[in-house]
Amino acid sequence: MTETARANLENLYRIFTVPEAPDSTLGAIDQAITKNVADFLQKHVVSLERSLEDIEKDFFLSRIPDEPTFVSEYTTFVKEKLVAQSVHTAAPGFIGHMTSALPYFMLPLSRIMMALNQNLVKVETSKAFTPMERQVLAMLHRLIYAQDDNFYQHWIHDSRHALGAFCSGGTIANITALWAARNRLCGARDDFAGLAIEGLPRTLEYLDCAGLAVLVSRRGHYSLGKAADLLGIGRKQLILVDTDVNNRIDMQCLREEYRKLQQQNLRVMALVGIAGTTETGHIDPLEQMADFATEFGCHFHVDAAWGGPTLFSDTYRYLLRGIDRADSVTIDAHKQLYVPMGAGMVLFKDPHTLTAIEHHANYILREGSKDLGSHTLEGSRPGKAMLVHAGLSIIGRRGYELLIDLGIEKARRFADMIDAHPDFELITAPELNILTYRYHPAWLQQQMENLDPQRQQQINDLLDQLTREVQKRQREDGKTFVSRTRLRSALYGTEQITVFRVVLANPLATDAILVAVLAEQLEIISSADLQALFSAMNEICQLATQSV
Amino acid sequence: MTETARANLENLYRIFTVPEAPDSTLGAIDQAITKNVADFLQKHVVSLERSLEDIEKDFFLSRIPDEPTFVSEYTTFVKEKLVAQSVHTAAPGFIGHMTSALPYFMLPLSRIMMALNQNLVKVETSKAFTPMERQVLAMLHRLIYAQDDNFYQHWIHDSRHALGAFCSGGTIANITALWAARNRLCGARDDFAGLAIEGLPRTLEYLDCAGLAVLVSRRGHYSLGKAADLLGIGRKQLILVDTDVNNRIDMQCLREEYRKLQQQNLRVMALVGIAGTTETGHIDPLEQMADFATEFGCHFHVDAAWGGPTLFSDTYRYLLRGIDRADSVTIDAHKQLYVPMGAGMVLFKDPHTLTAIEHHANYILREGSKDLGSHTLEGSRPGKAMLVHAGLSIIGRRGYELLIDLGIEKARRFADMIDAHPDFELITAPELNILTYRYHPAWLQQQMENLDPQRQQQINDLLDQLTREVQKRQREDGKTFVSRTRLRSALYGTEQITVFRVVLANPLATDAILVAVLAEQLEIISSADLQALFSAMNEICQLATQSV
User: In angstroms, what separates the C-alpha of B252 from chain A's closest C-alpha?
Assistant: First the structure.
């Protein structure tokens, strides 16, 4: 072995055997985060935004460097180029997306999880983590379905069945639910081996139907479109049912769509209810939908990725009434269970449902083993369930209840602030802790009523431009952040308008911050170059007056 | 607000605002891991195994506790019930699965990643993490496809295209590849909107074919079966082609299977090559498979989840010759890139391929945005690409080369040890760093040759029992660990036999450990209650001699 080769080998062993020194660059950052993560983020995430094109310059090398880099040197790069230009998703003023500050204990517990590096696909690489994850699934199952002690004692650790599947997020959870629903509807019988084996085309021949369909409201999450594509049923067969003025599925329209599907000889493989739409936080009439699913005998899935934890609240649980009649429910842990990114779950009322997607292999997942991997879409997976277990244990049901109640009540106060301000317009009032609104000055609101639809549309287009621009500048200034989306509002017919979207899950987002958000938007709006938009709006109104 | 309510609220704020004290129970564990993770695991993971049924008793509560638990109390539970009963996957003697010790820097960098809690589905919640992930994908793409600087400068940050998709693991990577292959084969044209929209049944009508099929060898990973089910093509249409004596796909059989599919009017949507089978580490003849795919015009996917990083090695890269002709390649980062669990990738030769599964939504993933989520199966995702970025930068190409070379050479030495020992039988020699073997005493090996097939089978059944039992006891003793699987061996016809499986990726697994693994197995085998198996084998042999 040459001198260089020996030196290289020694260096290599070093990174596997010698811990980072506490006074090294990386050690120091590690300690700073340990000591006070909020302070670390405050100091190191630069709030003023650089353009993405500019940031990309630091990430342009496409060749893997041949030679190693010192950890210290790399850490400096991470600090200056990655951390500094990341997004402070935990900031109390970051109320535009579904991330929040996290409980402090999540970080050191994550380190234990990372250090153990378990693989939950099988018992041999996860041991106690397997029953722990099954317990977490049972706890969430009980939160939703409230079966009795006997039920859980029987099923919680039953090797051949599963109360649900832990996964990387709500998208995989929704896909898993629809996958199971599809396969169960088209299961093996007599002379037919089932869809899983035969495939969709032959299944349809066997069932003598033209296709499978999924029904959900227009507000359904985009993961359902992915699922319809992935599962081979086709996006065209994902039927987006119209909503009422409160963004809830219109039961009359649902019935109508169902009738149309029957006429086309399409079988409904699932009806999907939403418990907290991503854009407005509204909840479908789950009870009525459950009745509907029972009447027509189809799988009823509820996407409660966002709103599921509302079940913790004695005060607001009623909003989800009927969810216990769902065949499957999606809940995201990295949303309102306050767990770091990458943790979702799907729960199944009937412990037999997941057998519809069961699979085995010789070296793992042997039949009858307790390996979790035989019922999951994913294969190798980390032990993130541990963080859910920690949250449920440390925060407890009442702690989560408090978090839920705080958010909903804060959203109502913010809605009141917007309502009270003459120049803002509340577009969707919060049912949970999400609301949408836009800037729409009082003088213009008055004029709008008298305009013909075409001119209203012109004004709305200009307001859309304004909203987009304000949202962009507010983000770039880095003090506070709201997101934006486009949706239909009962106020303005069937055309979509652009709105600000606010999510109030971070318990550290105070009322003072909400006041500041509106103040900052007003300030941006008053900047000189946006005035042109108002002149244009004014002109449209004047032309309208003249033409009368 | 009542006194209790106020106290609860204060406690709640505390967990979001007050860091764990360094001298608290959790703080102390955190520091211990920071100081020396190997030492922590050594001390706290109990090596002697408790039965799973016994462990389950600690995870039987199905009701979410109403009241909060102190962090210290919960941490004690974690230490005693979870950590102690987890699996020491990083132990140098744990050579049965694909986990390894990790470079030290991975832990503090993971903490930075957790603290930032970015969501890579969109730029608004990930900023610099988006170009960073794209860079990682470009680096891996270049490792495989070696396009020139111009190519990468053009595509690396192109918002409408993607060189690949980062995901939670190889299963999602394989599914993504086959999803894209399916949709591309059945894309929109003239009067047809494409499979993604129309669904599989109508697509087959349009293409006038009876079904889609995927071809892979018998050694294909079980995720391909899941994919065939999920994508609606059906497991029956996942054609498992016979292998040669070296566990590589038999090209003659492949041609034969292809012909049969044509006769049935089934279209091949993908041919899958394996670069490192999960069970034996063998590599398919990729060059010949690429020729085949070119000849018949079908998508060529290579599942290099395990073996992909062999490309780092100047010495062994040749084993993957032809991989650059694949349309898509899966590589797992949590395997031989030495990143913690939950990181996989799929790379696509043509940056246009992923448009076949593109999707958008109003509030994120707007068309033309650089949001990564428009080309991934998953939705919200953590910033794990950062750890791959760190590995590639800090370890460098040469460092990974050294790791790969060490593993392959160690496997060869272990194979030599097994070969040299009269009572062990090497079943599959290592092409990479994986091998399989079994205990098969010299006296029995001699007799086996003279036995008729039926008696050989009886002996093999008994040897299978022995192998299972030894593997189980070795695991339970907790000193060293090998896994087991069942496979066909050219030595014993078409029936499967049970074998020990060893994976040598942990650089800390010394030759002394390999010696100890065999010694421990011999010791277990010499235990009294296993002797009955040998008596039974002996009896079969004697009966055979008498009957001659």
Answer: 26
Question: Which chain B residues are within 8 Å of A172, Cβ to Cβ?
Answer: 168, 172, 377-378
Q: Cβ of A211 and B231 within 8 Å?
A: no
Tokens representing residue B259 in the block = 């012909």
Checking if the pLDDT of B353 tops 80, the result is yes
For chain A of 548 residues, list the mean pLDDT of each consecutive stretch of 10.
84 91 93 93 87 95 96 96 95 94 96 96 94 98 98 94 96 98 95 96 95 97 97 98 94 98 97 97 98 97 98 98 98 98 98 91 69 94 98 97 97 98 97 98 92 93 97 92 91 89 97 97 94 94 82
Regarding beta strands B434-439 and B299-303, do their DSSP bridges make them parallel or antiparallel, or are they unpaired? unpaired
B478 touches chain A (CB under 8 A): no
Tell me the residue type at A145: Y
Nearest to A396 among B66, B119, B398 (CB): B66
Token pair recorded at residue B482: 């090998």
One-letter identity of residue A170:
G
With an 8 Å Cβ cutoff, is B135 touching chain A?
yes
Mean pLDDT for B120-125 is: 94
Structural contact between residues A537 and A459, judged by C-beta atoms closer than 8 angstroms: yes
- Does an H or E element contain A449, and which? none
A438 contact partners, CB below 8 Å, separation of at least 6: A424, A425, A427, A463, A467, A497, A498, A499, A500
Res B359: pLDDT: 84
Is there a contact between A194 and B228 (Cβ–Cβ < 8 Å)?
no
Residue B4's pLDDT is 83
A47 reaches B (C-beta below 8 A)? no
Considering only the beta carbons, identify the residue of A169, A357, A399 that sits closest to B68.
Answer: A399
Task: Name the residue among A229, A230, A171 with its Cα closest to residue B378.
Answer: A171
Count of other CB atoms within 10 angstroms of residue B208? 8
pLDDT at B548: 60
Q: Does A208 touch chain B (CB under 8 A)?
A: no
Q: Are A31 and B35 in contact (CB under 8 A)?
A: no
Mean pLDDT of B10-21: 91
Residue of A nearest to B201 (CA): A201
pLDDT value, residue B449: 85
| pLDDT above 70 for B390 | yes
Q: What is the pTM of this model?
A: 0.97
Query: How many Å lie between the alpha carbon of B201 and the closest alpha carbon of chain A?
Result: 5
Tell me the residue type at A379.
G
Q: What is the mean pLDDT of residues B518-540?
A: 94
Q: Does A48 touch chain B (CB under 8 A)?
A: no
How far apart CA A300 and CA A206 sit, in angstroms, is 24
For residue A346, give every residue at least 6 positions away whose Cβ sits within 8 Å of its Cβ, in sequence order, or none. Answer: A164, A165, A167, A173, A174, A176, A177, A328, A329, A330, A331
Q: Please state whether beta strands B328-332 and B299-303 pair in parallel, antiparallel, or not at all (unpaired).
A: parallel
Residue B134: what residue type?
R
- Residue B389 pLDDT class (50, 70, 90 cuts): very high
Cβ of A487 within 8 Å of Cβ of B204? The answer is no
Strands A328-332 and A344-348: antiparallel
User: B436 to each of A137, B161, B279, B415, B520, how far by Cα in Å?
Assistant: 36, 42, 8, 9, 17
Q: What's the rounded Cα separation, in Å, for the pair B85 and A126? A: 9
pLDDT value for B232 = 98
Q: ipTM exceeding 0.90?
A: yes
How far is it, in rounded angstroms, from Cα A235 to Cα A239?
Answer: 8
Q: Inter-chain contact B139–A15, Cβ cutoff 8 Å?
A: no
Question: Residue B473 and residue A438: Cα distance in Å, rounded?
Answer: 67
- CA angle (B412 as vertex; B406, B416 as ends), nearest 5: 140
| Cβ neighbours, 10 Å, residue B544 | 18
